[in-house]
Write a structure and sequence with these properties.
This protein is of the alpha+beta class. The chain has one domain: Winged helix-like DNA-binding domain superfamily/Winged helix DNA-binding domain (Arc Repressor Mutant, subunit A), CATH 1.10.10.10. It contains three helices and five strands. The strands form two sheets. Strands 1-2-3 form a three-stranded antiparallel β-sheet, with no helix packed on it. The protein has a two-stranded antiparallel sheet with strand order 4-5. A hairpin with a 4-residue loop joins strand 1 and strand 2. Helix 1 packs across helix 3. The chain is globular, with a radius of gyration of 13 Å. The relative contact order is 0.18.
Length: 100
C-alpha cells in the first residue's frame, strides 16, 4: 500500500519509507489517483499533468509510467497498480481511499 499526500507532495509506503518522485511523476500519479479504476488515454494524461510543450509527445507518458512502475510496483514487469490497456491508455487498478 502507498499513500500520496497532495498537500506535502510526498509519496510513502505503508511502513513510512518515502518514495522520491519527480514533478512529472507526481503529477501523473495524482492524475491517475484522481480517476481510479477508470481508463485514461495518453492525451488525457498529458492534459491532466500539464506536460504539453513543443518537445512533448504522447510517448512521454509511456516513459513516465515506466518510471513510476519502477518506483511503486512490487514487480514492475507484472504491475498490480498501473495497468496498460493496449491501444487505449492506462488504468490505476486498486480502489483509492481519500484521507483528510
Amino acid at each position: 500500500m502507498i499513500e500520496l499526500n497532495l498537500r506535502t507532495r510526498r509519496l510513502s509506503r505503508k511502513d513510512g519509507r518515502r518514495i522520491e518522485l519527480t514533478k512529472e511523476e507526481f503529477n501523473l500519479l495524482a492524475a491517475l489517483l484522481a480517476s481510479p479504476q477508470r481508463v485514461m488515454t495518453r492525451n488525457q494524461l498529458i492534459e491532466a499533468t500539464r506536460v504539453y510543450d513543443n518537445e512533448v509527445y504522447d510517448r512521454a507518458i509511456d516513459m513516465l509510467i515506466m518510471r513510476l512502475r519502477r518506483k511503486i510496483e512490487p514487480h514492475p514487469a507484472q504491475p498490480i497498480y498501473i495497468s496498460t490497456l493496449r491501444g487505449v491508455g492506462y488504468l490505476f487498478e486498486p480502489a483509492v481511499e481519500k484521507v483528510y
